[in-house]
Each structure stands twice: as C-alpha cells, then as structure tokens.
Amino acid sequence: RHLSLLVAEEEEYINSSSWRDQKRHFFVLTEAGKPVYSRHGSEDKLSSVMGVMLALVSCVHDRNDKIRSITAGDHKFVFLIKIPLILVAVCSTPESITQITVYLKYIYNKIVSIVTLKQLDRIYAKQKNFDLRRLLTGTDKFLDHLCTSMDTGPEYLLGAFQCLPLAGNIRDLVSQALQLSKTNDLAFALLLTSGKTVSYCRLKEHNLHSSDLQILINLITASSSFHAGESWLPICLPHFNPQGFLHAHISYLDDDFQTCLLLLSADVNSFFTLSEAKKRVMVKLNKHDCLPILKLASEKGMYNVGKIGLPDLRHFIYKSKHQSQFTAPEFSSPYHDVHQQERLFGLYQHLHGKIHNPAIPLKLLFEVSDEETMLAWVASGFELYVAFSPLVTKGQAISSVDRLLRWIKQREDELFMIRPLVF
Amino acid sequence: MNGKVNIRKTRLSSSISSEFDSIFKVMVVGDSGVGKTCLLVRYKDGTFLGGNFISTVGIDFKNKTLVIEGKKIKLQIWDTAGQERFRSMTHSFFRDCSAILLVYDICNLQSFTNVTNWISDVKQYASPDVTLVLIGNKCDCTTSERKVKLQEGARLAKSYDIVFLETSAKTGVNVDLAFDAVARELHKKSLTPADYIGRDMSASQSFNLKQYVQSEKERTTCC
C-alpha cells in the first residue's frame, strides 16, 4: 500500500502543470537509474520518469548505438551519456539540439568540478548503485544557479566570458597585482567584480578555459558562504585536469563583497602561502586605489547602445574568437522587461543555431521579422549577432555593422582583456 | 596534567611576536546544519545569523584574539563544511590542530549519532593530545523540538572523557564560554617550565577545563 501511495503521489506531481509547463528540464541520473539532480522539482519524486529515460538509453544501447535526441512536436529530448552518468534535457525552447548538448556538458562539468572524474569512476567501478547525492549534498543551489544563468546567458551559448568594462591601464594594474601572487604550484589567480572578470593570471603552459572560468564564476555568484573571511576548498577544473582537485583560496577584498580574489593552487597545504600572496595583491591594488575604481566600474555597468550612435541598432553580441570573450550592451528599449529579454535571447539562440548548423554552416544570416531584423555574421576572428529595428534595409544594416565593428575595435582595451599575464 | 604537554605551539618570528604571544589552531566540526558557522559568528561578532541557511563551502578561516592572564592569544579558527565530500579535506586539517569543537544539533538525532564517527576520525587523524570539546547546539529549542537529552550528551562525553556543554548560537548561551575555555586550556598546555620562572603561574597550572566549564556554564533547558 505504501508503494502504491508513493507512485500515486509521483504521478500527481509530474502531471501538475507547474512541473509540466517548465520550458527547460534538466535531469541527471546514474546508469543504474538513481536520480542525481532535477532542475525543477525534487528528483526524489521523479524516479519513474528517470526510469523511462534509462529505458530509452538502454534500448538504443542494446543495438550498439547511442541515443542522442528525440523530437516530439515542440519538445526536444536530448541525451548526453557520460557513464556512469546520464544527462537528459527536455526543452520546448528555440535552442538547437547541438546547443542543448552544450548546456548538458556544462552541467556535467559542474558535477565533475565537485567530485572529480577520478572519484566518480572509482566509486562506480566499486558500487554501481551508489547514491551520488550523498557527495553532492548542498550543491543543488549551484546547479540551479547554473541552469538559471544558462537560460539567458550568452557566455554558455558562445563559450566565452565577459569582462567588466574598464580603462585599459587599470586592467593592466590589476593584472600586475595578480602576478604578484605567484607562489610555487599556483595555477591561476583571478579577480572578479560583481561576478564579472576583471583579469586573471595563469601558468604559461595552461590556459584558463572559458568553461572552467564559468565554473569559478558560478561558484562565487551562487553562494554567500565566501563572505566569511578567507575560504579554502577543493575544486576540479575539468578542462585543466578532470582527474584531480585544485585548491582554491577565496576572499573578498572589500567590505561590500563586490571584488573577489581566487587563487588556485595544486598544493593542498598552501593555505597560508596563498593568504600571504593575497596580502601582496591587496597592497598593490590599494597603492593604486583600484578597489573603488572597480566598484565604480561595476556600478556603471555595461554601456548603452545609444552611445554608439547607430539609430537602427537595438542590441548586439560580439564574440572575439581569439580571446574567447564577448561584449554586449545593457538592454535598452524595447528590451526593458524580462519577457522581452528572453525573447531576444531566443532570437540569438536561433541565429546561433542556424549559422552553426553542422550540416550547413553559414557565414552570414539576415532575417526580417515583424518585431526586428536580425543579422548574424561569422568571420575568422569574430562572431557578431545584431538586433536592428524591423525596417532597416540590408544595405543600412551592413554599413551599420561596419561602423559597429570600428567602434568595438576602438574600445578593445576597455571591453576585453587583451593580454592575460602569465606567472 | 602538567606543563610538559606536547602541544603544537607556533612560535612566531620576532617581527610579529609583539602582536601575539601564541597562536592556536581550533577547528569546528560536525554534521551539516548543526550550526557551526552560527556559533562562530556569535562568538566573533556577537550576532545571530538568522534567516536562510547558507551552507559553508569548503573551510572558512577566521582569527580571534583574546587576552588570558596578560598573554595575547590568537585563535585561528577553522569553520568546516559538514558535508561528506569535504571529509578528507577536514581530516587533513586535523593533523596540526590544537583543539576541536565537535558540534551536534540537539534537535537532530542523526547529528548526535554521528558524533561517535567524528570522534573516531579525531582519534585517527588528530594529534593524541588535542583538546576536544563536545557541544550540543540549539539549546534554545522547545522541549518538543529537542531530540537529544542533556544527560545523553553528558553521558557520551563522559564515556570519551571529554568536556561537554550545550550552547545556543541564537541566544548566545555558553558560546563565549566554549571558546574561552578552549583558549585557556590551550594556554595552560602551552606553558613550558621556562614560563614559570619568577612568575606565579599557579592559576594557569591549576586550570582544569572540565571544572571551569562546569562552574561557568549557564544552565540550559533540562528534560
């Protein structure tokens, strides 16, 4: 009786409109069918749904194949199989299957960053039915935060990060300050203000991959736990090394928790060494009064698109491929409310999906609709996605884009981190 | 006990020795959600972190300076995350730690049951002469919320011969006492025969952690 009650409860839950009407579902389960995470609702109540997912995966697997996606009406079911984990997305949104797969990879990497691939493999080699939630206690909010920011964050779509706009010379000063943190086994030093990258410093032979950087930003922006003094925690950066942990020394440098310094070392015993390194960085930053400047820059936020002086231009995203960085203005009319912003982001996703379609990749895309005219352009060094007012002609759009590119070029130093320093 | 205790006392370089006479590492451990961070914030800032539960990620580090018998003592306090995945990291910090405050939640029986696991971890990884204090937190709770009796905590502590007290980070009951008592104990343990020369250290020498806590502690709800 108890079991049937549970099943009924589960059924009621997944038939509720509050659950069914969610546009993006993400699920994580183990290959033994144990629920690990669900973006909406409690994964406990979803064991039957996850059972169906596992059945689908197994059916295709039995034919020596791998299930990738199912399309049913407006819904796309996308699978990412990373044994021992299975990740599934169910979306009724404009993203392409390729894009959704990228989102699933972010979720997977986030989990790896918490437990490492080595630990994951070791546990499941021994115990196939291990409940991974035991090791993920307290991390739901990080995964939730990641999923929410993927809803409207170009960083995930583009695989690029956004810098805090800042005068080039100030950014250089910050980079030099970060360089002072150099100690043995230090891999990365990173400074964030309001969750945006100000600068980072790295080992010569290791680049900081934008997806790893995103994991760190997600960590800082999702929890206020780091407001307390200095924190120390193991974190795995899957692009840097999925097998092992780095050890992060995390501290806020100001009283209102705007600017945060992260020092990542391979040495588990280096807390005090890094604590000293932090002091060196602080001395340099204070000498040039950088912290108030950073605070001001973050309050100023992004630039307004009106500043560029192109009448039909409403919004754009520019990605510098070489730097893996992007820039975009703040939202202005008609994208004032969240609903409009989500709609615009949907258009960007649509353009991005179409221009990067693996079957027929495009270079230039021009689409006219009732509400706006959209242009996408993929060149050797950049990608550009632009929203114009609907009545712009093709000729006007092209000439506007030329002027926009010149405007960005002139402000390169301010919008991008051009020269990441090495230790 | 006498002054000849093998305690790890960090002797400071001459440049900063004027700031502190000694530094001790103190850890706060226990299951997730028992109120470790709240105890620490109450002790350090005298406030209570109400509202949402913010679980500690990794280990947080704080300093607290106090004066005992004219000596400036700095406690380096490590506030740990209670979750299982941080266990091995916590163990690695046990090694050179002078005192451990082991916290459970008197409204959460599981956290009390796990105390024995924590103690065996301490025995395995920490120095044998580490000062261990058992703390039953949230003693501001109502009788119906309470799941672990005062006597049960006391009995468990007695069986391991460790000091026990109930605290409330919410009201502040016994919080300062817990940390101050630990500081006094560490101070006593760190005294070497040289420290006694020409000074009357009888007060320090005769310090007894259990008696001190017993005499100073505020009575908590008994049932």
TrEMBL record, chain A:
FUZ/MON1/HPS1 second Longin domain location is 185-282
Q: Which GO terms describe its cellular component?
A: Mon1-Ccz1 complex
Pfam families to which the protein is assigned, alphabetical: Fuz_longin_1, Fuz_longin_2, Fuz_longin_3
Which intervals hold domain FUZ/MON1/HPS1 third Longin? 312-412
Q: Which residues form the FUZ/MON1/HPS1 first Longin domain?
A: 24-146
Gene Ontology process terms (BP): protein targeting to vacuole; vesicle-mediated transport
Q: Which domain of life is it from?
A: Eukaryota
InterPro entries per the record? FUZ/MON1/HPS1_longin_1, FUZ/MON1/HPS1_longin_2, FUZ/MON1/HPS1_longin_3, Mon1
What this protein is reported to do is described as: Plays an important role in membrane trafficking through the secretory apparatus.
Q: Which family does it belong to?
A: Belongs to the MON1/SAND family.
Task: Give the protein name, as stated in the record.
Answer: Vacuolar fusion protein MON1 homolog
From TrEMBL, chain B:
Q: Write out the GO MF terms.
A: GTP binding; GTPase activity
Its name, as the record gives it, is Ras-related protein Rab-26-like
Similarity section: Belongs to the small GTPase superfamily. Rab family.
Picking any one GO biological process from the record gives: regulation of exocytosis
**What keywords are assigned to this protein?**
GTP-binding, Lipoprotein, Nucleotide-binding, Prenylation
Membrane topology recorded in Swiss-Prot or TrEMBL: Lipid-anchor
User: PANTHER family under this entry?
Assistant: LD44762P
List localization entries: Membrane
Please name the Gene3D superfamilies in this protein's record: P-loop containing nucleotide triphosphate hydrolases (3.40.50.300)
The primary location reported for this protein is membrane
* A GO CC term attached to the entry: endosome
InterPro entries in the cross-refs:
P-loop_NTPase, Small_GTP-bd, Small_GTPase, Small_GTPase_Rab
One family from Pfam that matches here is: Ras
Whether GTP-binding counts among this entry's keywords is yes
